[in-house]
Design goal:
single chain; 315 residues; alpha/beta; 10 helices; 7 strands; binds uridine-5'-diphosphate; binds magnesium ion
């Protein structure tokens, strides 16, 4: 029977865990698939740890990783991805915002041959501010980065073993998994769902955490911020030259006298434009260094013919 790994980052979720486990356990799809659940306890300071130990004792399908402190959801997910052994891997939250009853549909799509199944949120049952934020953020990300899937897709997804293997090669430290998986480019399908409100407890994401994750998304998948210098530089140099021409014509045609300092002011202005362009050039080099240090695979192979499967892994 195929094994499904369910990876769940957990931060202060004592009120949700047991119900979550029993819902997963009783899903109809686990009559013809086996599952393992990998809970990654991300430095919780409520009763989460005890509950997880108890669950792991009563059911061998429950695996449990305890981190020394709160490292954040992305790190917790990565720990789970490093320790799972399923044929398909599902990452999800345990606050019922990623509804367990959708798992059978995800597995069905995987059975029918898709490497990745993304779960896209149709309506967010969250505050106005968070909704607006998500809308602006995801459309900016779509426009300015290499990520070309529209809409609000979080960490609720299924990937197969092949994708996991490539994903685990990406050891970048500023992690943005919801961008790294699409970057790999495997065959995917999208299921739209209505994201309900959180079960019990409260969100573990402060505004600062969210902003940091958002920055990771933009900075890890786009060099646009580094290229800003080019736009500013061109604008300044161009407008500076227009000023200079204006001064020169006014001097030549209308005999308007300008003090040396005034000429110098305009020249100075143009030089600032060149400085911005220089900053952009430096930015390009930093971008290259940044890309190298991310150490992503150079290419990702879909299939091969008449070649051994483990030659040339793309790293
Ligand atoms: N989480 C985590 N570490 C954190 C914050 C959250 O492992 O520092 C877990 C949390 O237990 C939940 C998932 O990540 O399973 C999503 O977090 P949350 O529901 O707080 O985020 P939201 O749904 O509000 O974006
Ligand atoms: Mg949540």
């Amino acid at each position: 029977m195929p094994l499904i790994s369910i990876i769940v980052p957990v931060y202060n979720e004592e009120k949700n865990l047991e119900l979550f486990y029993s819902q997963i356990k009783n899903l109809p799809c686990f009559l013809d698939h086996t599952f393992e659940m990998i809970f990654v306890n991300d430095g919780s300071n409520d009763g989460t740890t005890e509950i997880l130990y108890r669950l792991a004792q009563s059911d061998k399908r429950i695996k449990f990783i305890e981190l020394t402190r709160n490292f954040g959801q992305q790190a917790a997910l990565t720990a789970g991805l490093d320790h799972c052994s399923g044929d398909a891997i599902i990452t999800m939250d345990c606050d019922f915002q990623d509804p367990p009853e959708l798992i059978p549909e995800m597995i069905k799509q995987w059975d029918s041959g898709f490497d990745i199944v993304y779960m896209r949120r149709r309506i967010r049952k969250e505050g106005f501010f968070k909704r607006l934020n998500a809308r602006i953020y995801y459309s900016l990300l779509y426009r300015f980065s290499d990520l070309k899937i529209r809409g609000s897709i979080g960490e609720f997804r299924l990937i197969n073993k092949k994708v996991l293997c490539e994903l685990n090669k990406m050891r970048e430290k500023s992690r943005y998994l919801r961008g790294m998986v699409p970057w790999l480019g495997h065959k995917f399908m999208i299921i739209d769902f209505d994201r309900p409100a959180r079960g019990a407890g409260k969100t573990g994401f402060s505004f600062l955490n969210m902003a940091r994750l958002g920055m990771n998304g933009i900075l890890s998948f786009s060099l646009i911020p580094l290229r800003l210098g080019l736009l500013i530089g061109i604008f300044i140099v161009f407008s500076g030259i227009v000023f200079m021409i204006y001064l020169a014509l006014n001097y030549l045609i209308n005999n308007q006298f300008y003090k040396l300092l005034e000429w110098l002011a305009v020249a100075n202005y143009i030089m600032i434009g060149f400085l911005f362009i220089l900053l952009w050039i430096i930015g390009e080099y930093i971008g290259k260094i940044y890309n190298e240090t991310k150490n992503r695979p150079i290419y990702v192979i879909e299939n091969k013919a008449n070649l051994s499967p483990d030659e040339n892994t793309g790293t």
